[in-house]
Write a sequence for this structure.
């Protein structure tokens, strides 16, 4: 039903009910919104119990986008719109969104200021206790040496 044949499976396309969408872990970009909207209408017609059978309704004359494998598989949700998972954005969903940072290949949510302050407080308290214990031990050693 397309102008040309597309191989499904290995190319990142998920084929079902005579149309192709994008597999999870893959990303694509439509050339323009009009083609995507026409493809959405094409799919909608195919899924009807009594689809229109005229030439313009059973053939999609425009190329579908080329699917690309995402560097971080869980960042790309696939499907028709190619949305990125939470914390990811941009081409191939390879950029961390605002409020996220890159750790190895994954985008992790940034800690809140309260959490960072709590962690810093614990470090300061441990440091103070260590200094106090070291001084106390040093005094005891000096007193024992006299």
């Amino acid at each position: 039903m397309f102008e040309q044949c597309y191989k499904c499976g290995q190319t990142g396309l998920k084929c079902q009910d005579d149309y192709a969408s994008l597999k999870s872990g893959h990303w694509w970009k439509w050339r323009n919104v009009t083609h995507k909207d026409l493809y959405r209408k094409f799919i909608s017609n195919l899924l009807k119990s009594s689809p229109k059978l005229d030439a313009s309704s059973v053939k999609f004359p425009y190329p579908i986008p080329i699917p690309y494998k995402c560097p971080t598989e869980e960042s790309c949700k696939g499907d028709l719109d190619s949305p990125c998972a939470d914390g990811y954005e941009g081409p191939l969903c390879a950029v961390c969104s605002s409020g996220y940072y890159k750790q190895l290949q994954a985008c992790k949510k940034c800690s809140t200021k309260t959490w960072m302050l709590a962690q810093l407080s614990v470090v300061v308290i441990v440091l103070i206790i260590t200094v106090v214990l070291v001084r106390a031990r040093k005094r005891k050693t000096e007193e024992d040496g006299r």
The two ends are 97 Å apart (CA to CA). The helical segments are 33-47, 55-58, 113-145. The CA atoms of residues 3 and 61 lie 6 Å apart.
